[in-house]
Design goal:
The complex is a heterodimer of chains A (224) and B (334). Chain A is mainly beta. Helix content of chain A is 12%, strand content 32%. Chain A has a seven-stranded mixed sheet, with no helix packed on it. A four-stranded mixed sheet of chain A has the order 1-5-13-12, with no helix packed on it. In chain A, a hairpin with a 2-residue loop joins strand 7 (121-123) and strand 8 (126-128). Classes of the chains: A mainly beta (224), B alpha+beta (334).
Chain lengths: 224, 334
């Protein structure tokens, strides 16, 4: 085999390896949880029903021990995602099934309900505007959209209870039902997050799921 | 060179048009062009652009930063123009014209000690002057809006200073007003014509508080009280607050807007907010300049969280339960 042939083979091999590396890196970087569409077919003026659940350990996937949110799609199936298409200037009626335990908030200010319609939420049917996270079961998570001023603390379940550890959880497991409503703004992408440092095993609790879209962070993709 | 811009480097000889052999008439022309051009551009910049240079004039520190930027520009423009004018003059006057012989090195390519010395001395003076000016401007006006740490070396002369605590957390700034009952809010409202001390700290990782139009920027570190001073002018309006330290997935979304309002409006806002937030303030920890985050985060342990083996010091929000978990809950509105 001549030198030029060997050089050509080496060059081609290098190109193939580089292409595989680039393709893999791009596929990883561009990977994203699915987006649940609540905007298509939406009747103007009608509220959007958004049902979520929080679970202490999702129990499957690449990070089965991570805490996570899940979304109930319009067809009733639970989807592991935190991305939603929502219509603009529309009332969103949110129901969160809270299956996780709680703890004191790092910043008790976030125990206050803000930005919701009426400035309140209901916890198992009881109207609440403020949770003292240093009492009772503490706060498990928050549903917060900082740019819209929305903050809803989710009351924790007793740590002594047997908590759901495999999502999607069913209402047979111990849980709290949190309901509230808010208005979507104009079109745009609005980050939302949990303010409880619930990344167990990570320094300050702010790693892992707290830094991952699809777990404790997401986007409201508000469309016209 | 014998003048006329032939581009030639003739053999040494007596100048034919008043030149002394070193092209001084070129030098005088270049200097004249440069002086006129630099004066015109500097004046135009100072009059037309100077008042609009960011960060503006909302505070004394912003005003100082604007002044500094203008001074730097006014000094930099002549230097820039000196290079450009010389380059343009050289290209125009000493270019190799069509039909003319190729230029070649002559006595002028050997350098000129006087010119070289003057250039080095001038640029050294400019740089050292700006260094002294910048250093003075950085420290003398009460720290120039930068974070000075817990023991500021440069403080405002007035003792009538409004303290505002800036609390950074992933991914939001909240603000505490210790002289108004210690209430905490996500709104940053400051009064006009007032000296302000921002006490910047963090509840988790490293952030940085950057109130752009206020000319204030200070690192936000956990367990650390970083003090930055400024004084608002009479200018009212909105300003932008951004985190300027990469701090996690929503770092880019960690911004909000503050307001400078009149003193009367501020007092009204502060008193109303203090009263409105009494239920929340009762649950906050006593005011402190710093708060030590719990290294475990939410570890499933309940109150008091400061029993954690990794952090047995004060944890923000971890005060003994005084009331029921659902305190001050109004009935839902129909």
């Amino acid at each position: 085999m001549g030198r030029s042939v060997r050089v050509a083979i080496a060059g081609a091999s290098l190109c193939v390896v580089a292409a595989i590396v680039v393709f893999t890196a791009m596929a990883y970087l561009r990977s994203s949880p699915p987006t649940v569409d609540f905007a298509s077919g939406h009747q103007p003026g009608a509220p959007v029903e958004l049902t979520l659940q929080t679970v202490g350990t999702i129990g499957f996937g690449t990070h089965p021990t991570w805490v996570s949110y899940l979304t109930e799609a319009p067809d009733g199936k639970w989807v592991h995602t935190t991305l939603w298409d929502l219509p603009a200037h529309t009332r969103v009626d949110v129901t969160i099934l809270q299956y996780d335990s709680g703890s004191p908030l790092r910043n008790q200010l976030l125990g206050e309900v803000t930005g919701t319609i009426g400035g309140t939420m209901t916890v198992n049917g009881e109207a609440v505007s403020l949770i003292n996270s240093n009492a009772g079961n503490g706060v498990g998570h928050t549903f917060s959209i900082p740019s819209l001023g929305v903050n809803v603390p989710l009351y924790g379940n007793p740590s002594s209870a047997t908590l759901c550890s495999l999502a999607p959880c069913t209402t047979k497991s111990v849980h709290n039902v949190v309901k509230f409503s808010f208005m979507t703004p104009g079109p745009g992408q609005y980050p939302w997050q949990c303010f409880v440092p619930c990344g167990l095993g990570y320094l300050y609790g702010n790693g892992g799921p707290m830094q991952s879209i699809g777990y404790m962070d997401g986007f409201l993709k508000v469309v016209a | 060179m014998t003048g006329g811009g032939t581009g030639l480097a003739p053999a040494p000889g007596p100048p034919s048009d008043g030149d002394d052999g070193y092209g001084r008439h070129h030098f005088r022309r270049i200097i004249a062009i440069w002086v006129v051009l630099a004066a015109v551009v500097d004046v135009l910049f100072y009059v037309l652009a100077g008042p609009h240079i960011p960060p503006g004039t909302m505070t004394s520190t912003a005003n100082g930063a604007q002044f500094d930027f203008n001074v730097l520009f006014l000094v930099a423009v002549p230097v820039l123009l000196a290079v450009w004018v010389y380059l343009a003059y050289s290209v125009w006057v000493w270019r190799a014209g069509r039909g003319r012989p190729e230029p070649k090195a002559g006595p002028y390519s050997r350098g000129h000690l006087g010119v070289q010395t003057a250039w080095i001395a001038t640029t050294t003076a400019v740089v050292l002057g700006l260094f002294i000016f910048g250093t003075y401007e950085l420290v003398a006006p009460a720290g120039a809006g930068g974070g000075e740490g817990p023991n500021p070396a440069w403080a405002p002369a007035s003792h009538n200073v409004l303290p505002i605590q800036v609390i950074a957390q992933q991914w939001e700034f909240t603000y505490r007003y210790p002289t108004f009952g210690g209430f905490e809010t996500s709104q940053l409202v400051v009064p006009a014509d007032t000296a302000i001390a921002f006490h910047v700290t963090s509840l988790d990782v490293i952030h940085s508080f950057w109130a752009y139009q206020l000319g204030v920027k200070a690192d936000a570190n956990p367990d650390y009280d970083d003090v930055a001073y400024t004084r608002t002018t009479g200018q009212l309006g909105q300003f932008t607050v951004r985190c300027s330290e990469l701090c996690g997935i929503w770092h880019g979304a960690m911004y909000d807007y503050g307001r400078v309002v009149s003193l009367a409006d501020f007092m009204n806002w502060a008193k109303v907010t203090e009263k409105t937030l009494i239920p929340v303030t009762r649950l906050l920890p006593p005011f402190s300049w710093t708060y030590t985050p719990d290294a475990n985060g939410a570890d499933g342990a309940f109150y008091p969280d400061n029993r954690d083996p990794y952090s047995n010091v004060e944890t923000y929000g971890a005060v003994p339960a005084q009331v029921a978990p659902f305190d001050q809950a109004p009935k839902a509105k129909p």
